[in-house]
Amino acid sequence: MSGKPQYDEGAVIDAAVDAFWRHGYAATSINVLTEATGLSRSSLYQRFQDKDGLFQIALATYTERVLRRMKSSEGDNARARLEALLRGLLPMGSRRPPGCLLARSCAELVDLPAAAQKAALSGMRQQRDLLEDLLREAITDGELSAGADIAPLAWHFLGVMQAILDLPQAGASRSELNRMITVAMLAWPATGIARTRS
What we know:
The protein is mainly α. The protein has one domain (9-187): Tetracycline Repressor, domain 2. It is built from 9 helices and no strands. α1 (9-23) packs across α2 (30-37) and α6 (101-107) packs across α7 (114-140). It starts with 8 loop residues before the first helix and ends in a 14-residue tail after the last helix. The model is unreliable at 192-198 (pLDDT under 50).
């Protein structure tokens, strides 16, 4: 025997991401994980050591996907790419769990082991950093003035992202969220000369 796992590890990690995303770290027991992934307890422990080990891999996988999605938004300029990113998060009737796994993990920070706390905070920071980079690019391209205060703007738009993901659970419709994005984009300072990419 080669010793290689006799299961699709990618599918197992996807199932674990889904379980932690739906239930949160604290409520996702080993029993929940074995049922979701189809692994036996012994296989789960052998490959991932424990719940914490699997959670860290799930969180890293989720973070990578979120950052890739953020980087893939398209538009003629930074403002257009940001707006496309926000509108791309609008609910589409998919079966993905509601909300954001990273935000949920930050809300549960007190229950997370130290390494997972660090990973959750790092994932949120990386999202904010991407938004700050986009805003800096807007300054370079003349879409924003050199004096634009990008730190609070990045937090603002990160908050809008989270609202789009979370508020459907509170009853917000796609149409209402779409209009909310229009309002949220008014925070983009009306200074500087917008310039499209050549």
